Amino acid sequence: MADLNIRNLQKDYGDFSAVDGVSLTAGASELVALLGPSGCGKTTLLRSIAGFVPVTAGQIEINGKDVTRLAPNKRNTGMVFQNYALFPHLTVEKNVGFGLEMRGISGAEADKRIAEALELVSLGAYGHRYPKELSGGQQQRVAVARALVVNPDVFLLDEPLSNLDAKLRQSVGMQLRDLQKSLGLTTVFVTHDQKEALMMADRLVIMRAGKIVQEGSAEELYDAPASYFVADFLGHSNVVSGKVTPEGFLSTGGTMFRCDSAGMPADRVMTLRPENLILGPAAVALPNSFEARIQSITYLGAQSEVTLSLPGGDQLTATHQNRTGDSLTLRVGDMISAGCLPEAVRLLVDDMTTAH
Amino acid sequence: MQTSTLSKLLFHAVIVLLYGFLLLPVVAVTFVSFFDSQFLSFPPPGYTLNWFANALDQADFVNGFLTSTKVALIATVIGVTSGMLASIALVNYEFRGKEAIKGFLLAPLLVPGIVIGTALYVFFIQIAQMTGYNATTSMRGLVIAHVMLTIPWSVRLIVASMGMLDRSVEEAARNLGASAWTTFYRITLPRMRSGIVAAALFSFVISFENLEVSVLLVSPGNTSLPIAMLQYLEWNMDPTLAAASTIQILIIGSILLISDRFVKLSQVV
Ligand SMILES: Nc1ncnc2c1ncn2[C@@H]1O[C@H](COP(=O)(O)OP(=O)(O)O)[C@@H](O)[C@H]1O
Ligand SMILES: [Mg+2]
Questions:
Q1: Containing domain of residue B76, as a range?
Q2: For site-directed labelling of A31, which of A206, A209, A284, B228 has its Cα 20 to 30 A away?
Q3: Ligand nearest to the Cα of A38, by number
Q4: Can A4-229 and A236-355 be said to share one CATH topology?
Q5: Among partner residues B176, B179, B180, which is closest to A98 by beta-carbon distance?
Q6: Tens digits of per-residue pLDDT, B46-77?
Q7: Would you state the torsion angle of the CA atoms of residues A13, A18, A23, A28, taken in this order, to the nearest 10 degrees?
Q8: In chain A, whose CA is at the least distance from the CA of B168?
Q9: Are the CB atoms for A259 and A244 separated by under 8 Å?
């Protein structure tokens, strides 16, 4: 399998940059997710790799070969389109065989590879059907088989799960991942859904307004977001405004959150993951500990989301794990102890409230 | 329950009435073509097939039929081919002046046929004065005029049918290794088929039955069937015309039925 190497890629539409100086690599059999809000340039970047977007500047290399100016049909990428883009007038077999035919592979060899590809996505019995005779999930698998049968150097997927039922997403996502790993496919996939990205990707690339804001493993990004935007985009975060002090962070409401603030510029915001805000007696002994009033409780089954109001007016949300036999009772209006470890307090660049 | 059956009944009644209204002229013409009387009278004194024999005996009708068929075929081939290429450009590409070009291509639909015919006639005469080539004395004048009708109809129908097509399918073909040309004839063209068939049918019928645009452009030996029938009407008032019309209705009906076997017409229009 190959690797993909993108350097300083730029795509401008007039004075608007859809992709703005992006550099990205994907190693052999690595699954990279491009994640970001709608309109941030993910699809444009993916389509540039496939060759459908004439890029303004920069370079795309596949296997060390510069493909930046190569026609889509000369690149040997395998793309799964968001709406699958199956050929409606051809049977499943013919759909899957199309790429082979274009490569001059026919007869028994083609039949064998088509059968294998369909078997791979458990659609062995559906070769003679037309796309419209298949369910959405089956169509997606045909699209996957069609892209993979030609042994692409790079496997590209645009929001592969977005057109599936919520119930199917998890299992199809895991199947895709297993397939990708067992075939050792260098893969780039686009999604705006963080769950999808966290579940499937080896490496996440967070994009915003055409630029990469941070990349890393799911754990790295979740635990050490580089900025408020990333912290807010991946999972939930409490955001507290205030100012950095030598001891930590002093909120506008006057609560002191102790943490390592050495060398931090003063204009940071503080974020705290709800699951790191601990409630009840266990919180009392923590370095950061305070009394707060329970403002609301949202019961979510395994967890409850508890909104606290701190004496100075700051609001924080905690995720509380519900356990049978737990002695801690939560009631709206009650005072409760809450606290967190200094390591859980993050002081981040504020790239959300300041003009961007 | 009560109201729903009643409204269903009303609905069906309206549909039957509408179809009846639409088909009435066809039925009436066909009926009259069998009347055994020189002048239109009702009830007819009897029925006969003589008018059909008479229609087929008219050399002008037979020649007109051949001319009309030839003109319609040529105008259809030219109109559908160029209309198809124009539609691909209009639907698949962004370029400057796109709307203007589309408007220009569809414009003949907005101009009364008689105006087009007169304008073309004047134009052809001026060309003839300048170059000595007179298009109105050959079938070419008619063909040129009818192409002005078959292009807009083709563009309109093919653009409409392509509007529902999804471009990513073509990209998928490119992604799988197909060149632009292979993608066109393996993917784009087959998916345009229904639009093209519809355009060809409409173009043929529009050209074949056209009267207004053609009326000034025919010449002896190059007279289309509708004009030949109009000329017959100047001196005769018998049901021969009804018989000729019945034959036309039969031919066009057969064309529609035959093409329905290849492309479901209900999906086309
Ligand atoms: N052909 C185009 N012309 C002009 N702007 C475009 C074009 N394609 C995409 N854009 C713009 O580029 C931005 C990025 O689009 P896209 O890559 O589709 O975003 P995403 O996939 O992340 O939602 C959007 O603001 C979009 O409006
Ligand atoms: Mg997108």
A1: 58-267
A2: A209
A3: 1
A4: no
A5: B176
A6: 888 888 998 888 888 899 999 999 999 999 99
A7: -110
A8: A85
A9: no
Report which residue type is found at A119. Answer: E
In this structure, is residue B99 part of a structural domain? yes
Structural domain A236-355, CATH architecture: Beta Barrel (2.40)
CATH code: domain A4-229 is 3.40.50.300
* Closest-CA residue to A161 (of A110, A120, A198, A117): A198
SS3 for chain A is CCCEEEEEEEEEECCEEEEEEEEEEECCCCEEEEECCCCCCHHHHHHHHHCCCCCCEEEEEECCEECCCCCHHHCCEEEECCCCCCCCCCCHHHHHHHHHHHCCCCHHHHHHHHHHHHHHCCCHHHCCCCHHHCCHHHHHHHHHHHHHCCCCCEEEEECCCCCCCHHHHHHHHHHHHHHHHHHCCCEEEEECCHHHHHHHCCEEEEEECCEEEEEECHHHHHHCCCEHHHHHHCCCCEEECEEEECCEEEECCCCEEECCCCCCCCCEEEEECHHHCEECHHHCCCCEEEEEEEEEEEECCCEEEEEEECCCCCEEEEEEECCCCCCCCCCCCCEEEEEECHHHCEEEECCCCCCC
Identify whether B25 is part of a domain. Answer: no
Distance CA A73, CA A146 (A): 14
CATH number for the domain harbouring residue B162: 1.10.3720.10
Beta bridge partners of A268: A349
Q: B192 lies in a domain?
A: yes
Q: Where are the domains of chain A?
A: 4-229, 236-355
Tell me which residue of B110, B118, B126 sits closest to B145, measured CA to CA.
Answer: B118
Residue listed under structure tokens 């005072």: A335
| Angle value at C-alpha A113, between A110 and A117, nearest 5 degrees | 135
Q: How many domains does chain B have?
A: 1
Choose the residue to mutate in A9, A13, A19, A22 for probing ligand 1, maximizing ligand atoms within 8 Å of C-beta.
Answer: A13
B177 with A77: Cβ contact below 8 A: no
Give the pLDDT confidence score for residue A355 in this predicted structure.
43
The per-residue pLDDT for B267 is: 60
Say how many Å lie between the CA of residue A40 and the centre of ligand 2: 8
ipTM confidence: 0.83
The model's pTM: 0.78
Mean pLDDT, rounded, for B247-259:
86
Q: Judge whether B188 and B88 are in contact, CB under 8 Å.
A: yes
Across chain B, which distance is largest between two alpha carbons, in Å? 76
Q: What pLDDT is attached to residue A148?
A: 93
Number of other CB atoms surrounding residue A14 within 10 Å: 5
Q: For residue range A246-292, what is the model confidence (pLDDT) as tens digits?
A: 999 999 999 999 999 888 888 899 999 999 999 999 999 999 999 99
